[in-house]
Amino acid sequence: AKAVAYEGAGTIEFIADASDGLKPDRIWFMEMNTRLQVEHPVTEEITGQDLVEWQLRVASGEPLPRRQDELAINGWAMEARLYAEDPAKGFLPTSGEIHHLPFDVTMRVDTGYDWSEVPPYYDPMLAKLIVRRRTREAAIDHLLSELRGSVIGPIKTNASFIYRALEHPDFRNGGVDTGFLERHSENLTEERALSEAARDMAADYFVGLRQQWDSQFASRDVWTDTRGFRLNRQSSTDLRLVVDGKPEPGRFNQTFAPDNNRRLPDHAYFDGETVWLNESGQTYQVTVERHGGGHSHHAHDGDILSPMPGKIIAVEVAQGDTVTKGQKLLTLEAMKMEHTLTAPFDGVVAELSATPGAQVQVEALLARIEASGD
Predict the structure, then answer these.
(1) Is 136 a catalytic residue?
(2) What predicted TM-score, i.e. pTM, was given to this entire model?
(3) Separation between Cα atoms, residue 206 and residue 286, nearest integer Å
(4) Is residue 368 within 8 Å of 345, Cβ to Cβ?
(5) Which one of the listed residues 35, 134, 192, 227 is annotated catalytic?
(6) How far, in Å, are 168, 185, 277, 337 from residue 188 at the CA level?
(7) Which own/partner contact pairs does 251-259 have at CB distance under 8 Å and 24+ positions apart?
(8) What is the pLDDT of residues 159-169, one digit of tens each?
């Protein structure tokens, strides 16, 4: 800072090799940002200082409000960045609506989103979740508790990834290095099926809604009542649940109980059609299959679909070109990231709808490759 006569708030980043002890010749300058970093709330929480105010005062020509010897650290603070991204798909950015983004007032949440839409044009960070507790272990437990009880949807986020990282034994014990994510990538990013207990709870809730409807509007005549019935047995209904758009195998046969007061737990809510629930930080969308619905459509193996909303910045092939497996077809840019789409196998570009500069939506058909010999 003295060498460049720098004045003002700023962050200087270094990388250090401490494998043989921390030594001056093993520390390298990386970059400098003339602003506060995203993690500045951690410092604010453990020092009780408002660094944004400090930044404005210094920019106005005032001296630093406090000297180094006037500062003290109190407790442990931890921050998690909540992103609109899909960990199971290589952390690709996502965009769309946020119907639910609730957090407890016992945790600091810095965010600009509330029941709104995430556009594809900016950094996909939704919020910073900051907790402070007396110990590191207590801070981890508090953040886990908040993520466990918060249903975030319908947009895909990295909440489940954060949750699994926090509860991992290596993280809890402080055994984290730059290889932590690579070593545990599959466990931290895989999509997990909804548990049987959670499915039963959702099915039971839908049955309760049906029972309430019947008690108010349906006929009590067994010959016109639409519920199934059997002689000398309680009436029941068959449900088939759809979780995140995919029908669950098997049906749930639920008996109508005499009470109508089925309630969802704190980590779930109902929006009039869908039960949204949280399990280990992951949000699931549960509905009931409707008979006579539309048919599902599956992409052809050679269809090149946009993995996210974004802008096409380069097209490397033309219709009719012969391509080999892994060959670069086009590049998509979204939320400060570039994503390269490649040929899934040897073949011919049978269809090409991508053009440089075009904005595309998620799962838009960009190209279609026909395998050699088809």
Answers:
(1) no
(2) 0.72
(3) 10
(4) no
(5) 35
(6) 9, 5, 19, 22
(7) 252/199, 252/200, 252/203, 254/203, 254/204, 254/207, 256/207, 256/210, 256/211, 256/214, 256/227, 257/208, 257/211
(8) 999 999 999 99
